Amino acid sequence: MVEQNGNRPIVVGVDDSDAARRALAWAIDEASIRRCSVHAVTVWSVGPVADFAWMPDNEVRQVAEKKLSSTVRLAIEGRTTVPPIVESAVEGVPAKALVEAARDGAMLVVATHSGEHLRKAPLGSVSSACVRHSNVPVVVVRPEVRSTGHASS
């Protein structure tokens, strides 16, 4: 996975959340500095609790690929320079698939959705598992803090 310039790519987990779009933007910025590529990876699965349990596997993969491409397009919109971006939709358990995808990368970038729903958890389950199991550095991008108009305790 080493590129022609000797740099390893930055692998970033992408879904269709605002937090994941921020993680992708961060990875693109960092890749521009390091002069390496970004490998944008979305993970899909079909199972009893999956959103798309009623769809055939190939259609679920196609939906995941379209969402990934759309997210990448939004992330590069308006940028004057963009590093090479490789898009991959892989089937599997999100944390395990992302850790595997980043095995030979420079780092793994993931978003945490915690804070959107669970105020006490510093990391979500996927980002936490990536931090625990990855053999490369993991950058966790937090969701954007939205002002509620009152102080929190």
From TrEMBL:
Signal peptide: none annotated. Residues 7-142 form the UspA domain. Pfam families: Usp. InterPro entries: Rossmann-like_a/b/a_fold (IPR014729), Universal_stress_UspA (IPR006015), UspA (IPR006016). Gene3D superfamilies: HUPs. Belongs to the universal stress protein A family. This is Nucleotide-binding universal stress UspA family protein. It comes from Actinocrispum wychmicini.
